[in-house]
Amino acid sequence: MKVLTNASRLVTQVVTGEVWPPLADRNAFRVDANGQAFFLPGMGGVTLGVHCGDIATNLIGDHVEPGLSVRSAKESVNYALQFLTCIGNIVTVTSGPATGKRGFAIGQHAYVLVDMLESDMREVTTGDKVSIEAVGQGLKLLDHESIHVKNLSPSLLDGLAGGTNVDGTLDIHVARLIPPEAIGAGSGMVSDYANTDLMGTYPELDSSFSLGLEDLRIGDVIAMIDQDHSFGRGYREGWISIGVISTGSASLFGHGPGPSTIMSGPASAFNLILDEKSNIQFLTKLLKA
After folding, report:
1. Which of 38, 89, 127, 128 has the highest CB neighbour number within 10 Å of its CB?
2. Is the pLDDT of residue 158 over 90?
3. What is an example of a Pfam family matching this protein (predicted)?
4. Distance from chain centroid for Cα 287
């Protein structure tokens, strides 16, 4: 993206975590929007075969986390991992058969989520340790003071289509516009942590539940209308928040594919360009550098 930033002043810190196993409790079952009990795979572990560019909503699962789900056992260390890791940061496996293999952060949920090449991912297992070159928090767009930036690495920003216009607005390409009625779980939380779930993406249910978002893909760059994620997450007419879809299908009512926020500001600060190809899949090239 052609935009002036303070990226040269940002600090890079190495943060660490490990691939967390999937968890369950003795009750096992949860209830979907139709009142039907379900027990499905979802959060934690190594989720194979789901990568940036893949459809997010047709998976038979609940709160599906693509790729590696990474966290730390120590609470304060885990908060640092969540808050400092930005989308696009390089992640390196540091133990186990996949030692030295690399991926990149695609967002936050209950865990930091990491995509990598499928062949490399198949060498990773729960308990393997990773290190992350965390950089991006504190990033500012120098010609766009009204736009708040978070969870956005300089490498991701560089690869996004768009830039500063003569009229002072920011061109940004987005795959979809998300209406405010789609915003579900996550509203009210701090926008530097976890993500927002999008409702109305339940392909297994009848059309009365649909908001026409069933074609969302993992890694899509999207614009959430009338959402202010500057210092939290909530409805604000005339504001826009830009996010990246980092989680997949969810069967629990009020939940769904989740975007991690990367920008938020007044709608007048943006010039949104609908572009179905707007996806962070291009970050895969960083793994081959």
Report:
1. 89
2. yes
3. DUF4438_C
4. 18
